[in-house]
UniProtKB/TrEMBL annotation:
Residues 227-714 form the LPS-assembly protein LptD central domain. This is LPS-assembly protein LptD central domain-containing protein. InterPro entries: LptD, LptD_2. The lineage of its organism: Bacteria, Pseudomonadati, Bacteroidota, Bacteroidia, Marinilabiliales. One of its GO terms (cellular component) is transporter complex. It comes from Mariniphaga anaerophila. PANTHER family: LPS-ASSEMBLY PROTEIN, LPS-ASSEMBLY PROTEIN LPTD.
C-alpha cells in the first residue's frame, strides 16, 4: 500500500516539474509569440487592432531569478524590424492573428523590401508572403506583384517569398539586368541576390514579347554581377535558330566597370583581305584611370595596334590619351608593287575643373598624325576628307589683384595634302590690361580729359618652324627655326566730340621686335645660290647672330558719326509707315615715317647683276613676326561708309478705327549692310589710292544673301604690273567704276513641312477621339511626318592678272535633305555639285530603319575616292554589338 501511494505521487509531481522547466525554457527563448501579452511590449498594430509582440521586449523582471545570468543566451529576433502593410479595399486577419489578407493595391514593407500587388497573403508565423494579380474585364492581368529590394526590382505573375530564408518561388518574372532583360516562367530565388531558372530568355529588347532572345535551357542570375547559362540558342521573331548553339554563356551585368576581353569585329576587304578589328583587353585599373589595348589583323599582312586610356580626378582634372599605329601592306611580298606603309596618330585631351584653381589653368588638345594616316586608316568619311589638323597645349595664369596675365602654349598645325608641318615650341604671351595712370584712386565728379589717357602692353615670345614632316627632325635649330620676341604698346589718347555729333579718337602705337639674327647680302659675279624667291641668285646670304631690335611706330586719328534720312509715303493708306536710311561714315588719318632710311639699318642696297643694277633687300627677311617695316613714309587717309536701310510696316491689316500710335507695326530690314572702304596715301609718289572693297548683306524672305567685290582703280600693263593710270580715264561704261579683281555671292535656303505637322496632329485626333479607325494612333504609320530640304549656292570670280587673260569663275551648289516616310523610316542625302566643272563631289545616300531593339542602316557613296556601300542589321545594345548581319564594300578597295 505504501509503495502504491508513493508511485501515484511521483506520477502526479513529475509532469508538473517538467512543465515548469519547459515554461522557463520558452520564456528564455527570444521568439515572436502571443502567449502572454502581460509580459510583452507590442511591436506593431494593424488596422484590425491585432497586436504583435517580439521576445526582446520582455520585461526584465519576468525571468528575474529564474536562471543565473551566465545561463541566459539572447539571440537576435527573426523579424528584425516592424512589418507595415495596407490595402485600398480590405484587410482581413485570421482568428489566431498569424495571417493577414490584403486586397486591391496591397502593399507590404519590411526594411528595404517593398511588395505591391492586387492580393497579398502575409503569414506572420512562417514569415512568408504570397502575392498575385487579377484579370480585368478584357482578360489582361493587372496589379501584378512588383518586388523591390533596394535598387533591385522585378514584376511577376505570382510570388511566394520567405523573409527569414530570403528564398522564394516566382512565376512569369521579368528582371532587368544591366542592359538586358531576363524572362522566366518559373524562377527560384535562392538568396537575396541570386536566382536560378529553367527555359528562360535573355534579351536586350524591352518589349513585353521580345523580338529576339537567347533561349536559356538553364541559368543562374546574380543581380548586379553576372549571368551564367548552360546551353543556349537564338530565337528570332519566335523562330528558333538551333545552329549555332552555344554550349554555355557568360554575361557580365555589373553596374561598375570591370576588366575583360574586348571582342573584335570581323569583315572583309578586297585589298587587305579578311580582318579582325578592335580586339584586345580592357583593364579597369582604378577609379582614377583605365587602360585598353586593341589590335587589328588582316589576312594579307596589314596590322594595327591601339592604346587608349582615360583618367580623372574629381574636382581637379580629366582627360584621355590615344596612340594608334598601323602598317598597311599593298601588293604581294616580292612583287614590284609591294608597299608597306607605316602610319601613326596621337590624340590627347586634358581639361582642368573650373573649381580647381580660378587663377591658373592647364589644358591640352593634341591631334597629330602622319599625313597618310587618315587616308589609309579612317573609317568615317569625315576623317577621310579632313586635310587640316592642329594641336594646342596651354597654360595660363592670372596674377590676382593685378592687371597682368601670362600664357604659355605649344602649338602644332599640319596639312595632309602637301605634308607640311608647323611647330611652335614654345609660344609665351605676357599681357597687361589697360590701365589709366593719371586717374585718381578716389574720384569725384566727371572724368577730366587727361584722365582718359590709357595704356596697355602685350609681349609675345615665339619659336617656330615650318617644313615637310619627313624633314623637320633634320632641320638646324639656329639656321632653320624662326624665333623672336615682340612688344606691342598701344596708347589710348583722350577722345572728344566735335559739334556734339562727330567723335574723334586719336591714338599712338609702338611696336618692337627682337630677333636673334639678321642677314648680310653680298653680290658674287657669276654665282647661282639657292636663295629664297625674294633674293636674286647672284647674292650670297650671310647670317649674323646677336640681338637685333626692329621697331616702328605710328600716329592716327579717326572721326565717325551717324547720318539719318527718312522717307515717308504720301499715300495715307500705305502699309509702309516709313523707310529709314542710316549712314555711318568714318574717316581716319595715320602717319608712319620712312623706316627704309639708312639710319634705321633695316634695308641694305645690294648690286644684283654685272650691269651695276641694285636693289634694296630686307635684312630681317622671313622673320617670325614679319620682315622690316616698309620703305617709304606713309600718310594715309582711310575712308569707309556703312549703310543700313529698313522699313516700318503694318503687322496686320490697317484698322481705320485706331490711331497711328495704336496700330501694330514691325521692322523689315531691306539692306542689313552695304559698305565700301578705301584709303589714299598722301605721301606716296604713285599708286596712292588703294583698292575699293565693297560688301553687302541682306535678307529676302528669310534667306540671307551675302555679296562682295574688290575694285582696283589702276590699270595694268601687258605683264600684269599696275601702272599709275586710273581706270575711269581709260575705260567707258561700267568699266569706269574700276577693274574688278574679285567678287563673290552666296546664299542658302531651307524648307521643312510645317503643314505635315498640323495634319499629323489632326489625324491623331481623328483616330483617338472620333474613332474613325479601329485601334489607337500608335498602331498606324502617319505619312505626314515632317521632312526638310536645303541648298547652298556659292559664286566666286577672280579677275585676270594680265589683259590677255580671262577671269576665272567657280560655282558650286550643295544639296541636303531628310525624309521620314514613317516614324521608323528615315532617308537622307547630301551632295555637292561643281557647276563649272560639271562634276559631283562628295555624295552620300543613307537609309535607316528603326526596328525597336534592332536597327537597319544602308549607306551608299556612289562615286569618288570614298566610293563604297554598307548594309547592316544589328542589335542596338552595346552588350550585343557583335550580333549583326553586315555586307559592305570598303573605300580602301578604291586605292
Amino acid at each position: 500500500m505504501y509503495k502504491l501511494i508513493v508511485t501515484y505521487l511521483l506520477a502526479a509531481v513529475l509532469p508538473l516539474i517538467v512543465l515548469s522547466q519547459e515554461k522557463e525554457r520558452v520564456l528564455s527563448k527570444p521568439e515572436i509569440t502571443v502567449l502572454d501579452t502581460a509580459d510583452f511590449s507590442p511591436v506593431f498594430k494593424d488596422s484590425l487592432n491585432n497586436y504583435y509582440f517580439a521576445a526582446d521586449s520582455i520585461s526584465s523582471d519576468t525571468i528575474s531569478g529564474s536562471q543565473p545570468d551566465s545561463l541566459v543566451q539572447e539571440k537576435p529576433p527573426v523579424i528584425e524590424a516592424p512589418i507595415d502593410y495596407n490595402a485600398e479595399d480590405s484587410i482581413i486577419g485570421s482568428f489566431d492573428g498569424q495571417k493577414v489578407y490584403l486586397y486591391n493595391n496591397a502593399k507590404v514593407t519590411y526594411q528595404q523590401i517593398e511588395l505591391t500587388a492586387y492580393y497579398i497573403e502575409l503569414d506572420l508565423e512562417t514569415k512568408e508572403v504570397y502575392a498575385e494579380g487579377i484579370q480585368d474585364s478584357t482578360g489582361t492581368l493587372v496589379q501584378k506583384p512588383i518586388f523591390k529590394d533596394g535598387n533591385d526590382e522585378f514584376e511577376s505573375k505570382t510570388l511566394r517569398y520567405n523573409f527569414e530564408t530570403e528564398k522564394g518561388i516566382i512565376t512569369d518574372v521579368v528582371t532587368e539586368q544591366g542592359e538586358g532583360f531576363v524572362h522566366s516562367h518559373r524562377t527560384k530565388k535562392i538568396s537575396r541576390d541570386a536566382f536560378v531558372l529553367k527555359d528562360g530568355k535573355y534579351t536586350t529588347c524591352d518589349a513585353e514579347h521580345p523580338h529576339f532572345y537567347l533561349h536559356l535551357t538553364k541559368a543562374k542570375v546574380i543581380s548586379n554581377n553576372k549571368i551564367i547559362t548552360g546551353p543556349a540558342y537564338m530565337v528570332l521573331e519566335d523562330f528558333p535558330i538551333y545552329f549555332p548553339r552555344l554550349p554555355f554563356g557568360y554575361f557580365p551585368n555589373t553596374p561598375t566597370y570591370s576588366s575583360g576581353i574586348l571582342i573584335p569585329t570581323y569583315g572583309e576587304e578586297n585589298n587587305r583581305g579578311f580582318f579582325l578589328r578592335d580586339g584586345g583587353y580592357y583593364w579597369a585599373a582604378s577609379e582614377y584611370f583605365d587602360f585598353a589595348v586593341r589590335g587589328d589583323i588582316y589576312s594579307k599582312g596589314s596590322w594595327g595596334a591601339k592604346l587608349h586610356t582615360n583618367y580623372r580626378k574629381r574636382y581637379k582634372y580629366n582627360g584621355g590619351f590615344d596612340f594608334r599605329y598601323n602598317v598597311n601592306v599593298y601588293g604581294e611580298k616580292g612583287d614590284e608593287d609591294y608597299t608597306p606603309s607605316p602610319q601613326f596618330a596621337i590624340t590627347w585631351s586634358h581639361s582642368q575643373d573650373a573649381k580647381a584653381n580660378p587663377n591658373q589653368t592647364f589644358s591640352a588638345s593634341v591631334n597629330f598624325s602622319t599625313s597618310g594616316f587618315d587616308k589609309q586608316n579612317s573609317i568615317s568619311a569625315e576623317n577621310y576628307l579632313r586635310s587640316q589638323k592642329s594641336s594646342s597645349i596651354s597654360f595660363s595664369k592670372k596674377f590676382e589683384n593685378t592687371p597682368y596675365n601670362l600664357s604659355v602654349n605649344m602649338r602644332h598645325s599640319q596639312n595632309s595634302v602637301d605634308s607640311s608641318l608647323t611647330l611652335s615650341l614654345p609660344e609665351m604671351t605676357f599681357s597687361m590690361a589697360k590701365i589709366y595712370p593719371l586717374r585718381k584712386k578716389v574720384r569725384s565728379g566727371a572724368l577730366k580729359w587727361y584722365e582718359k589717357f590709357g595704356i596697355n602692353y602685350t609681349g609675345n615670345l615665339r619659336n617656330s618652324i615650318t617644313a615637310h614632316e619627313s624633314e623637320i627632325l633634320k632641320k638646324s635649330f639656329t639656321r632653320d627655326w624662326k624665333n623672336g620676341i615682340r612688344h606691342n604698346i598701344p596708347i589710348s589718347l583722350p577722345s572728344f566730340n566735335l559739334l556734339n555729333h562727330i567723335n574723334f579718337s586719336p591714338g599712338f602705337s609702338y611696336n618692337e621686335k627682337w630677333y636673334f639674327k639678321k642677314y648680310d647680302y653680298t653680290y658674287v659675279e657669276g654665282a647661282e645660290f639657292d636663295n629664297p624667291s625674294s633674293v636674286p641668285q647672284s647674292v650670297r646670304i650671310d647670317t649674323l647672330t646677336g640681338l637685333n631690335r626692329v621697331y616702328d611706330y605710328s600716329y592716327s586719328v579717326s572721326a565717325s558719326t551717324n547720318i539719318y534720312g527718312m522717307f515717308l509715303p504720301r499715300n495715307p493708306q500705305s502699309k509702309i509707315r516709313g523707310i529709314r536710311h542710316k549712314m555711318t561714315p568714318s574717316v581716319s588719318f595715320s602717319y608712319r615715317p620712312d623706316f627704309g632710311a639708312e639710319k634705321f639699318g633695316y634695308w641694305q642696297e645690294v648690286q644684283v647683276d654685272e650691269t651695276g643694277k641694285s636693289t634694296y633687300l630686307d635684312v630681317n627677311n622671313g622673320g617670325i613676326y614679319g620682315g622690316s617695316p616698309g620703305r617709304g613714309a606713309s600718310g594715309a587717309v582711310s575712308f569707309s561708309l556703312n549703310n543700313n536701310l529698313e522699313a516700318k510696316v503694318l503687322d496686320t491689316a490697317k484698322d481705320t478705327t485706331k490711331t497711328d500710335e495704336e496700330q501694330k507695326f514691325k521692322k523689315v530690314k531691306i539692306i542689313d549692310n552695304l559698305s565700301m572702304s578705301t584709303s589714299y596715301n598722301l605721301i606716296a609718289d604713285s599708286l596712292n589710292l588703294s583698292p575699293i572693297n565693297l560688301r553687302a548683306r541682306t535678307t529676302v524672305a528669310g534667306v540671307s544673301i551675302n555679296m562682295g567685290g574688290v575694285l582696283d582703280p589702276y590699270m595694268v600693263n601687258e605683264d600684269g604690273v599696275k601702272i599709275h593710270k586710273y581706270v575711269w580715264n581709260e575705260k567707258s561704261g561700267l568699266g569706269k567704276l574700276g577693274r574688278l579683281t574679285r567678287a563673290n555671292l552666296s546664299f542658302g535656303m531651307n524648307f521643312r513641312s510645317k503643314k505635315g505637322e498640323k495634319e499629323a496632329e489632326r489625324n491623331k485626333d481623328l483616330i483617338d477621339n472620333e474613332k474613325v479607325l479601329p485601334g489607337d494612333y500608335s498602331q498606324y504609320s502617319d505619312f505626314n511626318i515632317p521632312w526638310d530640304f536645303g541648298f547652298d549656292y556659292s559664286f566666286n570670280y577672280s579677275g585676270p592678272r594680265k589683259p590677255s587673260e580671262k577671269g576665272k569663275i567657280t560655282q558650286t551648289i550643295g544639296v541636303r535633305g531628310n525624309l521620314n516616310l514613317t516614324d521608323k523610316w528615315r532617308i537622307s542625302a547630301n551632295t555637292n555639285y561643281d557647276i563649272m566643272a560639271g562634276e559631283f563631289s562628295f555624295t552620300t545616300f543613307n537609309v535607316n530603319r528603326d526596328l525597336h531593339c534592332w536597327s537597319m542602316a544602308f549607306n551608299f557613296v556612289p562615286f569618288g575616292y570614298m566610293k563604297s556601300y554598307s548594309f547592316t542589321i544589328n542589335a542596338k545594345s552595346s552588350m550585343l554589338k557583335d550580333l549583326k548581319i553586315q555586307k559592305r564594300q570598303s573605300h580602301y578597295d578604291n586605292f
